[in-house]
Design brief:
This protein is mainly beta. Helix content is 10%, strand content 32%. The protein is elongated and about 85 Å long.
Amino acid sequence: MRTATMSIALCGALSLHAQVQVDAPVRFTGADSTLRQLDGLAAPSGETDLLTLAAARSGAVHWATAGGTANAITLAARPPVAAYREGLRLRFLPTVAAGSAPTLNVDGLGPVPLLGPELTPPPVGSLVPGRLAEVVWTDSVFRMNPRPVDGCPVGFLQVHDGLCMQQDDGPNVSIFTALRQCTDRGARLCTWDEYLYGCTVLSGQLIDLFNDWEWIDDTSDHTHTANQAGRYYCAQQRSIPAAEHPNAYGRARCCYRIR
């Protein structure tokens, strides 16, 4: 049983407006095809409402207004979403940049993990204010549709057309923490060649450069070791035990590839 507001033309001159309920298909059989139509439908306000071509073209039923915080994003959809269902698709403009482990709560249905295309936290720079985001509900999480990032994310400087480098190197941490910190930002540790090139090109713009050793994503011919670079100059490199111990700490300056 469906309810709709209808405008019915009678004798070409009189219009009748009413709420009607029908439990069978509606067929228009007027001789004039221009009068065989249903018009004046309002925008849908519920999930079972009729959808006009104008509403479908506008994308309004997939649009939501964002709010909340970096790790607890809220969305208000119109019409409201009644339940999380496989394939639910929403678009929105974030009001804050995403944190390291963001959740999405649509119309008060409860927070759900928000993940990037690879089922990891959203890549750094992929969810920032003013940049359109699109998410899809699947397998009990919201996944972001992949979109190219224009330029470098906040906190990164551009080395060349395909590479960004973190401006600040952060606190002293173990190699394991450094790897996790970069991954949580959607980035990774710089390789040796990336570090050397970025350090050389951006040396006057990088913060706290040469104040301590910095981790790089590289290997050496030593067991249970990791590599560091840039203690006093860009081309400096050494191996150090890969251990969770203050004597085996370094700073993490992440790199990010522009897709």
